[in-house]
Amino acid sequence: MRIVDIQVGELSLPLAHPFKTALRTVERLEDIVVRVVGEDGSTGYGEAPPTAVITGDTKGSILCAIQDFIKPAIVGMDLDDLPAVMEKLNGCMVHNTTPKAAVDMALYDLWAKSQGKPLYQLLGNAKTSFETDITISVNPTEEMVRDSLEAVERGFHTLKVKVGKEGTADVDRMAAIRQAVGPGVKLRVDANQGWTAQQSVTIIKAMEDKGLDIELVEQPVPALDVDGLKLVTSQVDTPILADEAVFSPRDAANIIATHAADYINIKLMKTGGIWNALKICEMAKQNGVKCMIGCMLESQVSVAAAAHLCAGQEVITMADLDGPSLCATPPMPGGPRFEEAVISMTSDPGVGLRDIPCDNWH
Ligand SMILES: [Mg+2]
Fold it and tell me: Is the pTM of this model over 0.90?
């Protein structure tokens, strides 16, 4: 099918609670959405969250990338030759992984629709449902304990706790949460690059000594400090997950080759979409490395695409796809069902969303 147009729009959704990490505080989700149109009038949807502090992409840069570089490169191409379209998308400019991801997922949506199949079945068809964790924002300890209990009450069995702002005080914070939720709940810790390598070793060992039973620690050190990441991974027993350190398949190859981390967190906004994410999955599979699928502050549009990748790939054994649960708005119709912790795939063709709340397509 020939691609005849790529349109953009803006999506603005309120969050149920402000989202706070070591890097930022956000109260509303303000994303660019993408609509790819095929020659038969069918459409595929994508979403680009401007996450300047992580990917460097801003609203303006996303719009410019799509309208001035990606659209002229892709429109007119034939989606039946998916590899050619994807190589062109990735080759038309460097970096800009967020706009590339939005267009990539919209193209995959349209491609799967043209075959009448749900996307996950074309991406490996590994599972029909899975569980996601939910993020607990950095706040005073009593607030984090309250949020954790509330999440468990809502049916979440795994909490991803944001720390990294206060060094060793994070140990006490995790101890308070563990004590409140009891032993049955899985706790993941995300430091978002907030510690040095030496601090990380001290803090993680202290958590181990206290028996806090932490499932994994995500990105303890700055993204570029791969040697530091490797040092932490080699010195603690708790598995270390690389997040900000892995954007591209090349980053993943480096982390795997040097064993700088135990697991890899794949996010479509870092890889530039499903095409490159599949390359990381293949590498991870060949090397026995497990992956998590994560998201930025994203709505159901792009998280649904990530859910398809997770359901398609066996090597993705952990999910951090809580974007839709953080929004205060009701679910959009079609596609994977997000019911608190459980994400279930449906038989809707493509990614599945029938319409998205955007009225300013241009
Ligand atoms: Mg992270």
Answer: yes
